[in-house]
C-alpha cells in the first residue's frame, strides 16, 4: 500500500474523490491526468480498498463508473495530513541540543536542565 500511496497523483485523486462521488471523466478533467494512468491508479486504489466503484446504466453500451472514498481511504488522507505536519516541523529542537548561557557560565539542555558549567571541561548530558 505504501508504494501505491506514494505514487504521483494518488493524493490528489483521493482528495478529489473525498469531495463526493465522482465520475471517471470528471476526475480526469479536474486533475488533468491521462486515462491510462488514471485507470491504473484507480484500479490500485480499488484493490487496496481505499475507494469504492459504482456502475450506472449497466444496460447501455458504455456504462458510467462512479467512485467514492472508503473509510480506509479517509484514513490514508489523514496520513497525508500527518506527513504535511511532520514536514512543517521545526528541525532545530534536536534531542541533544544544548544551550550555552555565557552570562551564567552554564550549559542547559533542551529540557531546561542545567547540565554543566562552561568552566568545567567535563560536561555530561542528562536526560
UniProtKB/TrEMBL annotation:
What the entry lists under Pfam families is as follows: TFIIE_alpha
Question: Which stretch is the leader sequence?
Answer: none
TFIIEalpha/SarR/Rpc3 HTH domain ranges (all copies): 8-72
Q: Which InterPro entries match?
A: TFIIEa/SarR/Rpc3_HTH_dom (IPR024550), WH-like_DNA-bd_sf (IPR036388), WH_DNA-bd_sf (IPR036390)
Q: What is this protein called?
A: TFIIEalpha/SarR/Rpc3 HTH domain-containing protein
Q: What is the lineage of its organism?
A: Archaea, Methanobacteriati, Methanobacteriota, Methanomada group, Methanococci
Amino acid at each position: 500500500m505504501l508504494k501505491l500511496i506514494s505514487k504521483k497523483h494518488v493524493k490528489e485523486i483521493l482528495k478529489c474523490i473525498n469531495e463526493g462521488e465522482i465520475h471517471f471523466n470528471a476526475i480526469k478533467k479536474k486533475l488533468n491526468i491521462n486515462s491510462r494512468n488514471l485507470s491504473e491508479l484507480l484500479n490500485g486504489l480499488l484493490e487496496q480498498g481505499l475507494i469504492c466503484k459504482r456502475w450506472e446504466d449497466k444496460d447501455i453500451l458504455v456504462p458510467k463508473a462512479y467512485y467514492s472514498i472508503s473509510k480506509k481511504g479517509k484514513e490514508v488522507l489523514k496520513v497525508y495530513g500527518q506527513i504535511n505536519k511532520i514536514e512543517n516541523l521545526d528541525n532545530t529542537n534536536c534531542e541533544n541540543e544544548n544551550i550555552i548561557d555565557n552570562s551564567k557560565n552554564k550549559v542547559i539542555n533542551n529540557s531546561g536542565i542545567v547540565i554543566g558549567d562552561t568552566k568545567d571541561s567535563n560536561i555530561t548530558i542528562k536526560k
